C-alpha cells in the first residue's frame, strides 16, 4: 500500500514506540554510556501514598495528597573543569503515582568521569512557549495549561482540613500548579562523582520529599500556611513554591556505580 | 525491503503534506532505525493482513496507545466492525455492542442506564466511544486496562450481553463468513477468543472523532466559532480566581486538552453517600470511593443523559450541578472542585457563574459535535 507520509521522527523524536523491535547496533553510540535517576517520593519520613494517608507539616497542619507530578528537563553532567555535557532533548515526565515514570535514563552520555549532575524542574522558556509537543511534553500528560500559556512544571493536589473550605466540606482543596517562565529551578548535585564507562552506567538515587514544598527549613518565612495559601495557578505565589522545591525537594541519597 | 510477515510491528508517525491530518502508519520492523526516512511501500506477502493507516487530526496529542501485539490491520478492523454489530454475541442473539453504542448518538444509547439482554438494567450509563486509543483505563471505574481487556466486559457481563467468550466463538465458528474473516485478519486457524477481543479493540481504536467545529478552530480557522462560543471556550479553560479578569468555568483541569480529559478519576460532588463506589470497586481503596473516570466531552451534545448514572438530562442540568449544587460534604471531593469559585469571597463559595456564562459554556460544548463522525460509513453497520 502507498502511504503518503514522511516520518515525523525527523522533527520530533518519538519515545517508547519501538517495543518488540531489536535495535540495530549504532556505531556512533559506541563511545557513549548512560546515567539514570531513580526517584523515591516521600513526605517527611513516610512514603508518599495516594490512599488517603494524612501527613503533618512542621506547624501541625495536616494534608493528604491526591496527585504529584512534575517535568524534569535539561539534564547536564558536570566536568571538573567547570564545563558540562548537556544531554539533548532530556525532558521527563514524573508522576509519583506511576512507577514507570520514576526511573529516568539519560542515554548517549559521552564516556568520562563527571563530577556531578544538574537538571531543571520545569521546561526551558524556549520550549515552554513553543506550543504542544511530544514525549514528556505531550499536552495529553495533564501538565499543560493550554496552547497560550504553556506547561505546568509541577502539580501537587490534595486536601487539608486547615485550608479554606465550604462549611459542609471536611477539608479544603490543595491545588498547587506551578508554572510560567521564571519559575524554572535548577537542581544541582555538584559533589557526586559519576564515572560513565563502557561497563558503568551510574544511577543517582534521589529522595523527593513533598513536604519541602511547604516547609522550608532554611527560610522559614517561605513556609506555606494552608489557611492563607491553598490554591496556586502560576501567578504571584508560584515562585514561592518554586523556591521551596529548589531548596529541599531533592536529596541525593547515593550513587550506584552500576 | 520491509515486509509485513512479523507480528512485531513498529509504528512511524507522519503527516500528510497538508499538515492537517496525521497518519499512524503501521509498518514492520525495518532498518531505518526510526531515523525518519520515507515509509516504505512494500507488497505484502499473499494473505498477510494489510496495515491500517489511521488518520489522526493534527491538533491531537501524539503517542496514542497502540499495543505492539495487536497492530491495526484493514482486515482486523473489518472483522471488528462486523463483530461490533453482531447480535449472536449475546446470549439470546438479541443485542450487539451497537445496541448500546449507536453511531448516530456518538456511540451511546440515549438512556440513563444501559439495557442488556432480557431487559436487564445496567447500574451505569453506556459510555460514548471515540478517541479511546489514548485512554489507558476504560469504563467508568477504570476496571479494564486496554481495549482488548475491555471488550470482554460487555460481552460476558450478566446485565449486558451475558455470553461466555467460548460460546461466542462457537457461534462464530458455525458461520463460514466469520471463519473466513478471522483467517484474513489473523491467519489460518479457527476463530479464537483472543482474536475476537483483538478485532473488536482494533475497530474501536479507529473511532477517531476530530472534525468538530472546535477542532477546525484549533487548526486555525477562526471563523467557525461565534463570539459567544469563543467566550464559552475561554471560560471552559479558565481557572476562576475570584476576580473579574479571572472568571472561569473551572472545567479544563479535568477535561484537559483536545481530548477533553486528563484520563484521571475524580469525585465531582454528586452525592454525600455513594450507592456506586466507582473507582473503589476495582481498587478497594476508601479514598477512591465516589470517583469516576473523567470522560472526554467529544460529541457531548449527543451523549446525554449525563454522569455515570445518567442523572442529568441536559447540559444545562450539568452546568447547574457544577455551579450551584456541588455536594461539599461528599468524601474524596476533588481539590479542583473544592477550590473553584468566581466569588470575590473566595474558596468555600460555589462556582458562581452567571446565567449568561453558563449559556456560553453550553454553546461551546455544542461545538464539540462532530457530524462527520456520526455519519462516517466506515463506522456504520456493515452490509456484507
TrEMBL record, chain A:
Sorted UniProt keywords: Signal
Q: Does the record's keyword annotation contain Signal?
A: yes
Q: Specify the Copper-binding protein MbnP-like domain's residue ranges.
A: 32-229
InterPro entries in UniProt: MbnP-like_dom (IPR046863)
- Renumbered to this chain, the signal peptide range is 1-18
Entry-linked Pfam families: MbnP (PF20243)
Query: Under which name does UniProt file this protein?
Result: Copper-binding protein MbnP-like domain-containing protein
Record organism? Hymenobacter nivis
From TrEMBL, chain B:
Q: Taxonomic lineage of this organism?
A: Bacteria, Pseudomonadati, Bacteroidota, Cytophagia, Cytophagales
Q: How is it modified after translation?
A: Binds 2 heme groups per subunit.
Q: Which UniProt keywords apply?
A: Heme, Iron, Metal-binding, Oxidoreductase, Periplasm, Peroxidase, Signal
Using the record's annotation, list all stretches that form the Cytochrome c domain: 75-208, 227-369
Instruction: Give the protein name, as stated in the record.
Output: Cytochrome-c peroxidase
Cofactor: binding comment: Binds 2 heme groups.
Task: Give yes or no: UniProt keyword Lyase.
Answer: no
Task: Look up and give the organism this protein is from.
Answer: Hymenobacter nivis
* Compartments it resides in: Periplasm
InterPro entries (alphabetical): Cyt_c-like_dom, Cyt_c-like_dom_sf, Cytochrome_c_Peroxidase/MauG, Di-haem_cyt_c_peroxidsae, MauG/Cytc_peroxidase
Q: Which SUPFAM superfamilies match?
A: Cytochrome c
May I ask which residue range the UniProt record assigns to the signal sequence?
none
Query: What GO MF annotations does this protein's record show?
Result: cytochrome-c peroxidase activity; electron transfer activity; heme binding; metal ion binding
Under PROSITE patterns, the record lists: CYTC
User: What does this protein need as cofactor?
Assistant: heme
Please verify whether the record's keywords include Thylakoid.
Answer: no
